[in-house]
Amino acid sequence: MSIAVLIDADNISPSAAGAIFRKACSIGEPIARRAYGMVKCFSSTGGWVQAQREFGIVARPQTSNVAHKNVSDIALVIDAMEFLYKSPCEGIFIVSSDSDFTALATKIREGGKLVYGMGNEKTPQSFRTACSRFFEIPKPAAPKSPKTLYTACPRCGGKLTTSRTKSNHPCRICPSCGGVSCKLSVLNKVFAADGLKKLLETAKLHQQRGCICPDCGSSMSLLKVTAGKIQVEIDVCGLCGAVWYDKNEFETLVPNDGLILPTVTSGKAYRREMVLTLTADLRSGHLKVLDTGSLQMVMKASYHVPQSDIAPIISTLTCQKVISSDKKTGRITVLLAGK
């Protein structure tokens, strides 16, 4: 069954995007994926940018010349009416906790199409009962305890092993890619106390997404540490204070005080952006490949990925459970978010 997913981005948090599309895909095929909200929702700090790329959502940003006008809701209703009377889709999926959509849900149902609703626990009963079926957005899971240590390398998926640095600090290393994980406290003799404090504060802002923390499983922040004339990119967890160094980065860090800059060079930033792009295209069906060989060819020919970056990007897609591949045939399966 084909459905149109219409999201009230002013009312729904972008953190619910995964749950929304898992439910939508369990009902049918989302042939349209649209989000409606004020322009700020789709800015670099608005929150919905990442969800757009990951789930193939088409933004419908709105502007209002007069304060407190529900222009986003009206735009959603207009598109819903077009899908009701002009589209071959069999159902319309409205994502909002706003009771104002009660009349819209009733009209769609009376028009002969199924109407699905999804919203938070606070959603009024009037909108719930007006829908053919209503689903609650699950509450976010409590953050995992920092005491839980993960055994997989966040960069290549290899097995992490316990070790110690040359200065006898406990750490974990990946024999496959040479990455190193250790606590922020290891840098006490490298940076002054105020430098470390600024580093952790910047990591909590999460201005540039890093890899998955090997200690607590949360998303780390990619930061640039300037020590003397040398700059090193490191991944810092603002939740538990763990630091991830790629191969040779730990040894390269000079034991001097330095400035912390939340910017990145093109290398790592490029790979992270390419992973996000491929994730969105694979899960939306825009990119269809049969095996790892064809994926490598498409990455090189259509996405212009340098040869040296192809293997690391595929490893990251596998590690982040975007794809899985058969070891014997190389056949690729695209996995939905949260699977």
Largest sheet: 8 strands, antiparallel
Overall helicity: 25-40%
Topology, number of strands: 16
- Overall shape: globular
List key phrases describing it.
32% helix, alpha/beta, single chain, six-stranded parallel sheet, 339 residues
Could you walk me through the main structural features you see in this protein, from its secondary elements to its overall organization?
There is one protein chain. The chain has 339 residues and is α/β, with parallel strands linked by helices. 32% of the residues lie in helices and 24% in strands. The chain contains ten helices and 16 strands. It has helices spanning 17-27, 48-55, 71-86, 102-110, 125-130, 193-205, 249-252, 266-284, 292-301, 307-319; strands spanning 2-8, 29-38, 58-62, 91-95, 114-119, 133-136, 161-164, 170-173, 180-183, 209-212, 219-227, 230-236, 242-245, 258-261, 323-325, 332-334. The strands form three sheets. Strands 7, 8, 9, 10, 11, 12, 13 and 14 form an eight-stranded antiparallel sheet that branches. A six-stranded parallel sheet has the order 3-2-1-4-5-6, with helices on both faces. A two-stranded antiparallel sheet has the order 15-16. α2 links the parallel β2 (29-38) and β3. α2 (48-55) crosses α8 and α9 crosses α10. The longest helix has 19 residues, at 266-284. It is globular and about 70 Å long. Mean pLDDT is 83; it is low at 255-266.
Helices and strands in order, then pairings?
Blueprint: E1 2-8, H1 17-27, E2 29-38, H2 48-55, E3 58-62, H3 71-86, E4 91-95, H4 102-110, E5 114-119, H5 125-130, E6 133-136, E7 161-164, E8 170-173, E9 180-183, H6 193-205, E10 209-212, E11 219-227, E12 230-236, E13 242-245, H7 249-252, E14 258-261, H8 266-284, H9 292-301, H10 307-319, E15 323-325, E16 332-334
Parallel strand pairs: 1-2, 1-4, 2-3, 4-5, 5-6
Antiparallel strand pairs: 7-8, 8-9, 9-13, 10-11, 11-12, 11-14, 12-13, 15-16
